[in-house]
């Protein structure tokens, strides 16, 4: 047993040599870049599900101006009132305007799409920008450790980079998502707060900028409120005897924070009638819809996963063991306690208060990615500060185990995305065969893989025969000779986030089309989907 322990620790020491860590780090970054290139190659880049809506929102601002919030559409001539707009809950929201007119808007944060609309790059590179920002976030974690926890050994900083890069935050880094930008701003806010708490030398303007960053992060991801709120509550509790000193110390940071909140909140209130934007109204409605049993069900799924998705425990059990032992057996610094408790409490509150399940595909651990970042900071600082050699080696063992486990889960998730990309290309190929023919969907389940086809040709939805009859009349009157029909050929799975009524009306809603003006030209099955081409009757 003693020999095994010696060999094990020798292996750990070999793994944590500087040049070995550099090789692993370079290989991991190259692997991520390679996968991004593969997914963005072919007929169209792999942009699916929620990321699609953010792309269309960005293109709307790019083509029509930053104040044009209406849903992007290439079928205004066919569907001026958005009756057959394919995207419904949870992607779009109808705002009541004057004269009983309704305006279709996307529910996602406008600031993210508005910023990307200003970038002078083709949308095909948006995914790559998010991945680059993930690398920037990793660099921010390194700076956090170096300047706030005095971790100066480069091999430990390389180890921290590996630990974070294989965390489940990668699921947001490989999508066109506002999560990674939000985490960068939130980390900047945490940096400012911990710098003030540790009385690190900072410039007044930096505290102000840190406060602004915290405000911005809230308007990108609403769960940032929980991270900032818990951090503020803990600092208030730890400084109860020095309240006036606390207020003076944080005056510039709070000024920056409230400046951002008032400015961005005022803009949202003026444009959408909601301080946190349309997303907050949708989320609040969904929050009220859930029963207590639903919340515990989501919490259980987050912890242990399900048939299709991994759970937090299986992904992070080395970290769970290490963090649990450290709070019981180790003497922790004030900063370690603060980071650790914020990470733990925020994770629990985000999962319990979120009205949604934790995402799709294999890595379903959404909304709590910033907790993993805080856990990474915590355990690396623990390893760096530990003086007992034997205990230090055991800490390192659990960290390396977490890296190996994390990479295993990342690989499995990437394998799932490779599968999605394969079918994505097949379906896109079918649509480009008739580039001028609108696509009619019979179910919202079919919308998950539209990708940038929506930017190239009209896509509409008719969820029942009576709606199809009205739609085909419009197509006929406009002289449209052909249209395509695309529908999942099996019973769609039910998402935990939607009601039974919505599922029956919009998801499990396929039917056999009865057409008055068109006849079927072809009817085939492609990758589990039924694909039809209809042409005008002579």
- SSE order: HHHEEHHHHHHHHHHHHHHHEEHEHEE
E-strand count? 7
How would you sum up the major sheet? 5 strands, mixed
Over the alpha carbons, how many angstroms does the gyration radius reach? Answer: 25 Å
Query: How far do the termini sit from each other?
Result: 85 Å
What form results from the Cα inertia axes? Answer: globular
Average pLDDT confidence is 87
| Global structural class | alpha/beta
Number of helices: 20
Instruction: Please estimate the helix content.
Output: 55-70%
Write out the strand line-up for the largest beta sheet, numbering strands in chain order: 4-3-5-7-6
Poorly predicted tracts of residues: none
What percent of residues are in strands? 5-15%
Write the layout of secondary structure elements.
Layout: H1 2-15, H2 18-40, H3 50-64, E1 92-96, E2 102-106, H4 110-118, H5 126-148, H6 154-165, H7 170-173, H8 179-197, H9 204-220, H10 224-238, H11 243-249, H12 251-272, H13 278-289, H14 292-304, H15 312-329, H16 334-353, H17 369-385, H18 389-432, E3 439-441, E4 459-461, H19 465-477, E5 482-488, H20 500-507, E6 518-526, E7 529-536
Parallel strand pairs: 3-4, 3-5
Antiparallel strand pairs: 1-2, 5-7, 6-7
Helix pairs in contact: 2-5, 2-6, 3-4, 5-6, 5-8, 6-17, 6-18, 8-9, 8-10, 9-12, 10-16, 15-17, 15-18, 16-17, 17-18
